[in-house]
Amino acid sequence: MARTRAQDYDAKRLAILHRAAELFAQHGYSGTSITMIAAACGVSKALLYHYYPDKEAVLFDILSAHLQTLITAVEAAARIEADPDTRLQSLAAALLEAYRDADAEHQVQIANLKLLPADKQEQLRAMERVLVGVFSEAIAAAVPAVGHGPLLKPMTMSLFGMLNWHYLWFRPGKGLDRADYARLVTRLVTAGAAEAAAAVAPGTASGAAPASAVTARTARTRRARGA
Predict the structure, then answer these.
(1) Boundaries of each HTH tetR-type domain copy (predicted)?
(2) What is the pLDDT of residue 166?
(3) CA-to-CA distance for 19 and 37, rounded, in angstroms?
(4) Using alpha carbons only, what angle is made at residue 203 by residues 191 and 146, rounded to the nearest 5 degrees?
(5) d(CA 77, CA 137)
(6) Distance of CA 115 to CAs 109, 111, 153, Å?
(7) Helices (H), the chain
(8) Domain boundaries, the chain
(9) Res 206: pLDDT
(10) What are the Cα distances from residue 202, in Å, to 13, 143, 147, 221?
């Protein structure tokens, strides 16, 4: 007969994951043992093994649960009826809000996902691609100069860079709050995207001078020859 799960099984499992994430973030994955996780959770190793067979399973579930939380948050924001600029801002705000109290999980995602077996990594990478896809579509709609062209990926990943690393300097109650920062970073993207796209348009990439600079230089050369 299958063993019946306790009614608070999922709540306890999530508590284990959060505490384990804090330990992984503090001591590193290799520096954290099952014994340490059990002690930090106030349970025996035997009880911990009732939830997870090994440390690898704990790591995978930390990342899977964290990414699913992020996906749920941004997909809900994406369904809101709004103009493209407001929708992009709402996505950024939803992501930052989902990061609240999840700094440890976020650090573990950045540092430790690559430690999992390839098949487990691919499952998590697929979840990451869902997140990227939601933001890519929002940026394409909000920034016509970028659209679905070759600059969409670098523009999307640049936005993620501003959002994903904010935990290194962000302090609640000091300066901008999460909603303000979401407005700031999305405005940086939408307001500067057209000019940024023009800066790397064909003929100006790889250090080539913009057309205006070439025209000015040609005019100076002609004047010098006529002098």
Answers:
(1) 10-70
(2) 84
(3) 7
(4) 30
(5) 13
(6) 10, 8, 25
(7) 9-27, 34-41, 45-51, 55-78, 84-99, 103-112, 118-142, 152-164, 178-199, 211-226
(8) 55-201
(9) 45
(10) 53, 19, 16, 24
The model's pLDDT over 97-120, given as tens digits with 9 standing for 90+, comes to 999 989 999 999 999 999 999 999
Distance (Å, rounded) from C-alpha 164 to C-alpha 103? 10
Least Cα distance to 87 among 125, 49, 143, 37 occurs for 143
Burial of residue 152 (number of CB atoms within 10 Å: 0-12, 13-18, 19+): middle
Placement of tokens 């057309």 in the chain: 211
Among candidate residues 79, 130, 124, 75, the one with its CA nearest the CA of residue 98 = 75
CB of 84 closer than 8 Å to CB of 137: no
Extract the tokens encoding 100. Answer: 């609240």
Q: In whole angstroms, what is the distance from residue 27 CA to residue 36 CA?
A: 10
Q: Quote the longest CA-to-CA distance of the chain.
A: 100
Q: Tell me which of 14 and 168 has the higher pLDDT.
A: 14
> Which residue do the tokens 């890519």 mark?
136
Q: Tokens 């990451």, residue?
A: 128
CATH of 55-201, one of 1.10.357.10, 1.10.760.10, 1.10.287.70, 1.10.630.10: 1.10.357.10
State pTM to two decimals.
Answer: 0.82
Beta carbons within 10 angstroms of residue 143's beta carbon: 23
